[in-house]
Amino acid sequence: MRDRLDITENYVLRIGEWSFRKRWRTLLIPIIFFLLVCNYHKWLYSPLNWQVSLPFILLGECIRVWSVGIRDSNVTLNILVTAGPYAYVRNPSYLGSFLIGLGIVIMSGLLWFIPIYIFLFFIGYQPMVLWEEDRLKKIHGDTYLRYKGSIRRWIPSIIPYPHKSPHAFLFFKALKRERDMIMATVGLALLMMVKYFGVTTLLQYLIY
Fold first, then answer.
1. Residue 51 near residue 165 (C-beta atoms within 8 A)
2. In this structure, what is the dihedral angle of CA atoms 143, 62, 175, 17, given to the nearest 10 degrees?
3. How many CB atoms lie within 10 A of CB 34?
4. CA-CA 20 to 30 A from 201: which of 103, 124, 141, 177?
5. What's the predicted TM-score (pTM) here?
6. Rounded to an integer, what distance in angstroms lies between the CA atom of residue 142 and that of residue 145?
7. What are 94-134's pLDDT values in tens digits?
8. Which pairs count as long-range contacts for 195-200, CB under 8 Å and 24+ apart, including other chains?
């Protein structure tokens, strides 16, 4: 029984490593699937959907920019990152991605797709998270285990981790690194606007 568990764990970690190294390609799969769903189902346009979705998208992108700006300063320090958003949640970048995706689904009006999105997101990201945790445990040992025991994987803590690392926030470097994600999010929003209003109506609205 133990051998089977070890084989399963190793298989999941291998999937996680592959997904991590190919994460942009992996991300394209749910995006394409979602666009196909949107194409074959009636979109329910509502200003309320957009008003509700924008805070999720903006919050998610802010969390991602914050986490990337903190994490990139680790190039010179080479120690476990526990500062910034990492003092509250272990995977802030992935949490930000989740909020952005949730906002996009709400924006589309296909609210019935929300539980499917949540399921697909965690199926796709959980192996990556487990692989990263295994790697960090091997690199940082007890330091990481103490951090892991105090800070949750997905749900932010109210009280920050007391032993924060001396990482600085590199704002402009973070924006540069997040450029592709920002462009992809804006592109999806524009696609939805075109779908809702049509190209001619949308251009008239933007110009006049």
1. no
2. 50
3. 20
4. 103
5. 0.81
6. 5
7. 999 899 989 988 888 888 889 988 998 888 888 888 888 98
8. 195/38, 195/43, 196/43, 196/45
